[in-house]
């Protein structure tokens, strides 16, 4: 059974995946319902569900969820619009890379969350500030990863295109871009996951709506059930967006799987 | 008149990490007549691929120059089609789209593109595979597509760099016949690089033997076997005599090459 790389069946894979969730919730239930942990610090699963239901039906939590999604998607799309073309240019043209790469490599290590106090001074606690946090957090990562992907285009493909009469700009458009499109989509999927972390942090510090705002409010009320529900909602949205991205990639790039 | 003229061509690669520069190609001269099929035969690492890459414009010579139809080659272009040893089909394009790649770059109307693609699909025997992705094809089919892609662009000269090197023996034999059949009909000027002696003789009207590194053209052997050639020619006495002669020449070079490394 534990032979390296031995494949596991579809049904077994599903059962194994589900059983971890079951074990996790069982452990949580025993700890809380069994009275081993004080409800002040950790709500039990049933309270969490009841709190969640009340959040959704009575406290307008759907609006908070919508706000958070809007911020992530908005900031991420703005970052991608700049980062993907710049990354492609850097990967394709070495002087462009030489110009931007050192700065981008430096900027990549600046923690987006550390900018929040500064961004609040500049842009207040409105939407601009939230979008800026996400842009700072994802822009430089995407630029660098796209540049590396495009720079690693198989040389033989570029050479083959040249011998077929491609011009320099056609090499970028018709070889480097399509060759790396799946990888660029994969990079976006990965960085979108990180953007979720930044938006919640931004909402924890200065906001009047959003999932992070609800969580920090619940802390003041010692409503651990609501906090856990909020965290789980984030996880579920992440999972859904991940699946959607993967399905989109499979549909856009059938040649990869063929 | 010569289609392709290579004059005093040499290539030296700069040394890596302060090492000695590597002389890959000694000054070489070469003339290829229009509609001729020549093979360049040599042991691995003799600089034959370097020579071909410079002709294609993918590498720059250290001295000398390459002229095609009297024009000096400075960069790659559609007049010199190339088929590589490694698989170089564009994986995101279907077989038909791969073959049409150069035609699209040329800006040919769609109708004409489709006609040319269809005719080459037919010539290389890929009917029914037009809409397959390269990943779905065997190695031999991928190289057939690559040949069709290069020929569909109607280059002045076709350059092939050990195109069948990665194929098994049986497939390789079939591919040789296929390519030779196309050449016998269309008479494109072809330069074919290989380390396989039988392949070199079977395909060519002239075999150039290259010496071990640093590579130089050691001998120029005419192959006066009649066309169309059938694979059975490989067992004829004339073929065997040529093979014996070239085997001897290559063996000396291969041994020098082994001793040097």
From TrEMBL, chain A:
It is a multi-pass membrane protein. PROSITE patterns: ABC_TM1. The keyword Protein biosynthesis does not apply. The chain crosses the membrane at residues 12-37, 69-93, 105-125, 131-150, 195-216, 222-245. Residues 65-245 form the ABC transmembrane type-1 domain. Keywords: Cell membrane, Membrane, Transmembrane, Transmembrane helix, Transport. GO terms for biological process: alkanesulfonate transmembrane transport. SUPFAM superfamilies: MetI-like. It comes from the Bacteria. It is found in: Cell membrane. GO terms for cellular component: plasma membrane. Its main location: membrane. CDD domains: TM_PBP2 (cd06261). The keyword GTP-binding does not apply. Belongs to the binding-protein-dependent transport system permease family. Probably part of an ABC transporter complex. Probably responsible for the translocation of the substrate across the membrane. This is ABC transporter transmembrane protein. It comes from Mesorhizobium alhagi CCNWXJ12-2. The lineage of its organism: Bacteria, Pseudomonadati, Pseudomonadota, Alphaproteobacteria, Hyphomicrobiales.
UniProtKB/TrEMBL annotation, chain B:
CDD domains: ABC_NrtD_SsuB_transporters. It comes from the Bacteria. PROSITE patterns: ABC_TRANSPORTER_2. Residues 4-237 form the ABC transporter domain. One of its GO terms (molecular function) is ATP hydrolysis activity. The keyword Cell cycle does not apply. It holds the Pfam family ABC_tran. Keywords: ATP-binding, Nucleotide-binding, Transport. Belongs to the ABC transporter superfamily. This is ABC transporter. The lineage of its organism: Bacteria, Pseudomonadati, Pseudomonadota, Alphaproteobacteria, Hyphomicrobiales.
């Amino acid at each position: 059974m534990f032979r390296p790389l031995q494949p596991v069946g579809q049904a077994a894979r599903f059962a194994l995946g589900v059983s971890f969730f079951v074990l996790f919730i069982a452990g949580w239930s025993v700890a809380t319902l069994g009275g081993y942990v004080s409800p002040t610090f950790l709500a039990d699963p049933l309270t969490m569900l009841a709190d969640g239901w009340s959040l959704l039906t009575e406290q307008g939590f759907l609006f908070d969820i919508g706000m958070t999604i809007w911020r992530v998607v908005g900031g991420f799309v703005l970052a991608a619009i700049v980062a993907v073309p710049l990354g492609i240019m850097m990967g394709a043209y070495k002087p462009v890379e030489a110009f931007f790469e050192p700065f981008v490599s430096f900027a990549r290590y600046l923690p987006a969350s550390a900018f929040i106090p500064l961004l609040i001074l500049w842009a207040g606690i409105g939407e601009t500030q939230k979008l800026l946090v996400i842009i700072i957090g994802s822009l430089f990562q995407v630029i660098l990863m796209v540049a590396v992907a495009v720079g690693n285009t198989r040389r033989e493909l570029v050479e083959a295109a040249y011998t077929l009469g491609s011009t320099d700009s056609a090499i970028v458009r018709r070889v480097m871009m399509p060759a790396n499109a799946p990888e660029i989509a994969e990079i976006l999927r990965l960085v979108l996951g990180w953007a979720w972390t930044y938006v919640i942090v931004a909402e924890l510090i200065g906001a009047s709506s959003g999932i992070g705002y609800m969580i920090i409010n619940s802390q003041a009320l010692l409503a651990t059930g609501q906090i856990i529900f909020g965290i789980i909602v984030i996880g579920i949205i992440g999972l859904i967006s991940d699946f959607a991205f993967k399905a989109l990639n499979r549909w856009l790039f059938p040649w990869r799987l063929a | 008149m010569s289609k392709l003229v290579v004059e005093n061509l040499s290539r030296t690669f700069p040394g890596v990490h302060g090492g000695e520069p590597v002389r890959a190609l000694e000054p070489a001269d070469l003339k290829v007549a229009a509609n001729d099929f020549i093979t360049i035969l040599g042991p691995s690492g003799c600089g034959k691929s370097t020579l071909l890459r410079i002709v294609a414009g993918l590498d720059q010579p250290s001295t000398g120059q390459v002229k095609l139809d009297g024009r000096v080659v400075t960069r790659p272009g559609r007049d010199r089609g190339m088929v590589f040893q490694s698989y170089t089909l564009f994986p995101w394009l279907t077989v038909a789209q791969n073959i049409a790649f150069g035609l699209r770059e040329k800006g040919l109307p769609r109708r004409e593109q489709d006609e040319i693609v269809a005719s080459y699909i037919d010539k290389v025997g890929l009917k029914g595979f037009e809409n397959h992705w390269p990943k779905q094809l065997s190695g031999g089919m991928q190289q057939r597509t690559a040949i069709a892609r290069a020929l569909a662009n109607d280059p002045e000269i076709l350059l092939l760099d050990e195109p069948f090197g990665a194929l098994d023996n049986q497939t390789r034999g079939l591919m040789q016949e296929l390519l030779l059949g196309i050449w016998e009909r269309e008479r494109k000027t072809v330069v074919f690089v290989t380390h396989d002696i039988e392949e070199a003789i079977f395909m060519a009207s002239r075999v150039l033997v290259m010496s071990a590194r640093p590579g130089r053209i050691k001998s120029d052997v005419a192959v006066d076997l009649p066309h169309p050639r059938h694979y059975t020619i490989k067992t004829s006495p004339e073929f065997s005599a040529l093979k014996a002669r070239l085997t001897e020449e290559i063996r000396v070079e291969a041994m020098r090459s082994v001793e040097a490394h």
